[in-house]
Automatic annotation (TrEMBL):
HAMAP family to which the protein is assigned, alphabetical: Prokaryotic_Ku
Ku domain mapped to chain residues: 52-180
Keyword Plastid in annotation: no
Function: With LigD forms a non-homologous end joining (NHEJ) DNA repair enzyme, which repairs dsDNA breaks with reduced fidelity. Binds linear dsDNA with 5'- and 3'- overhangs but not closed circular dsDNA nor ssDNA. Recruits and stimulates the ligase activity of LigD.
Similarity-based family: Belongs to the prokaryotic Ku family.
Origin species: Amycolatopsis cynarae
UniProt name for this protein: Non-homologous end joining protein Ku
Signal sequence bounds: none
Subunit structure: Homodimer. Interacts with LigD.
NCBIfam families in alphabetical order: Ku_bact (TIGR02772)
Region (Disordered): 254-281
Pfam families documented for this protein: Ku
Domain of life: Bacteria
């Protein structure tokens, strides 16, 4: 794993320098968009809808669109001026029981590794958290975005889970919730409970499950490779510029005239020597 962020955990008056690592990774089979007939990759370009030209990355800013369609352009300088009080610091705010936090608020998960001088305070916080049976609620800024986070212990390592803000979790607004609930008979409830009991396990073992779609897709790809059913895209065609049709025609006529002139003056082309400049009178 490669560290993606370096900062510290602020725990009261204790500061614990740490490295941050993504705790999860996407195992989906990466498929590209290609031209079906020859396997050439489909490319997307940054194109300005106003000037109708391709825009280099250095000229791209961020914008916020208003309800009337007007655009507020925000530069890097505008964004850099915004206050991020917890920048590079995971600031512990309080401690709560894990069951008090609805998993619906969870976003992404990260491992925290202590920097060499900070192993002792790191272990202190880890062991204290584990003994208390609680988790820490913190605030942190990642990628210019401030967010709540949860610190807990997993496999003897501190794990930080970023959390959604309360207004980012949608309320379930469904019509059936306002209707009179249907009557569930005790026998039906008892049967549902029996089904739950029959499928219950004392612990969750994720290793007994697998991504069957991914495995089947990998098998299809492997079969095509073994059967030589692959396509090698042809070399890229020479880059062409989008030009005005009339201008292209005029340029073509000009080039055609130039190509014809040397043939008419072929004998004169045999002359050699340096052309002399006539003296001024």
């Amino acid at each position: 794993m490669r560290s993606m962020w370096k900062g510290s955990v602020s725990f009261g008056l204790v500061t614990i320098p740490i490295h941050l690592y993504a705790a999860t990774e996407n195992k989906n089979v990466s498929l590209r968009q290609v031209h079906e007939s020859d396997g050439g990759r489909i490319q997307y370009k940054r194109f300005c809808s106003v000037e109708n030209v391709e825009v280099p990355y250095s000229e791209i800013a961020k914008g916020y669109e208003l309800d009337d369609g007007e655009m507020v352009v925000l530069t890097d300088a505008d964004l850099d001026s915004l206050p991020l009080s917890s920048s590079n610091v995971i600031d512990v705010l309080e401690f709560v029981p894990l069951e008090a936090v609805d998993p619906l608020h969870y976003d992404r998960h990260y491992y925290l590794e202590p920097q060499k001088p900070a192993v002792k305070p790191y272990v202190l916080l880890r062991d204290a958290l584990q003994k208390s049976g609680q988790v820490a609620i913190a605030k942190v800024a990642l990628r210019q975005r401030e967010t709540l986070a949860l610190l807990r212990v997993h496999a003897d390592v501190l794990v930080m889970t970023t959390m959604l803000w309360p207004d980012e979790v949608r309320r379930p607004d469904f019509g059936f919730l306002d209707d009179e609930p249907p009557q569930v008979r005790p026998q039906e409830l008892s049967m549902a409970g029996s089904l739950i009991d029959s499928l219950s396990e004392p612990v969750f073992d994720p290793d007994k499950y697998s991504d069957q779609y991914r495995e089947a897709l990998e098998a299809v790809i492997e079969a095509k490779v073994e059967g030589k059913a692959t396509t090698k895209p042809r070399a890229k065609a020479a880059k062409t510029e989008v030009v005005d049709l009339m201008a292209a025609l005029e340029a073509s006529v000009s080039e055609a005239k130039k190509a014809r002139k040397p043939a008419a003056r072929k004998p004169a082309a045999k002359k050699t020597g340096t052309r002399r400049t006539p003296k001024s009178a």
